[in-house]
Amino acid sequence: MEQKSMTALVSAFARWYHAEQNRIKIFDDFLADKILTDEDKQQITLHMSNGIGFFHPTFNGTKEEALRWIVDNQLSPSPLGRAAWAEKALHTAVNIGATQYLIIAAGYDSFAYRQLEWAAKLQIFELDHPLMNEDKQERMQRVCDKKPSNLTYIPIDLTTEFLSEKLFSCNAYDKEKLSFCSLLGISYYLSKEDFKKLIQSIADSVSNGSTIVFDYPDEYSYTEQAGERAKKQSIMTSGTTEAMLASYSYEEMNGLLSDCGFLIYEHLMPDEITKQYFDEYNAANPNHLMTAFDNVNYCLAVRK
Questions:
Q1: What CA–CA distance (Å, rounded) separates 60 from 8?
Q2: What is the DSSP letter of 75?
Q3: Are residues 272 and 284 in the same domain?
Q4: What is the tens place of the pLDDT at every residue in 198-246?
Q5: What total number of domains does the chain contain?
Q6: Confidence (pTM)
């Protein structure tokens, strides 16, 4: 893994662009602007606007219009929708007693630095690859004077290390407390075997009643039945160090979670995600409509 994950950078870019361009927002990551450097923004802007022919072969417009189309249609739906959903679920979990928030493969997630009053009693743990973790901390030092007192960074390579071992060696973590765990954007890039190992490691690390939330590609994602956006996403990542590796039917995912001791409490498909999290934005932006990403489902499960 390179020090700067391109997937994490593009996700942060999408959150920044959305917050910058819109009054009514699906998700407002107002810190993404400062997390990204001017060079990051310029490079991604150039790369994406120049790629309009790949994303939309018949597009006819300016480079600025091309960028807006790509961001709204290809880049933003996943990071915006899943972040809005996950943080809403986190708030609910805190209201019923969760006191620990595990952000797994945190990337450039900014929650700890823009946390609202209701999160003040949370212990927040950001787990990511050591190089990514280091880069994130350097960026946040430029954004804020000091690290939030309730935040702990935990470097981990999820493909070679067990999450449970890392957590249990951290003095701030308490297995007996109720936890909320987000695994956003992870399932695509792990083999089915590695993803199940990760879920089992979480199950071994958290108390009964703890929650996990994640997004995952459905069983049609890498087939001819996939939506056009999903096909292009797969093409973009194929052959890179962040290639997409797995997809799941609902039945398969339900079985995987059950084997690891989790029960599904909420499961959203693209149409439901659009209705719940995109409708208000779309009503305010009829010329820039956005829909939840093709073939991607959201899942909330609770430890038995």
A1: 29
A2: I
A3: yes
A4: 999 999 999 999 999 999 999 999 888 989 888 888 777 665 555 667 9
A5: 2
A6: 0.94
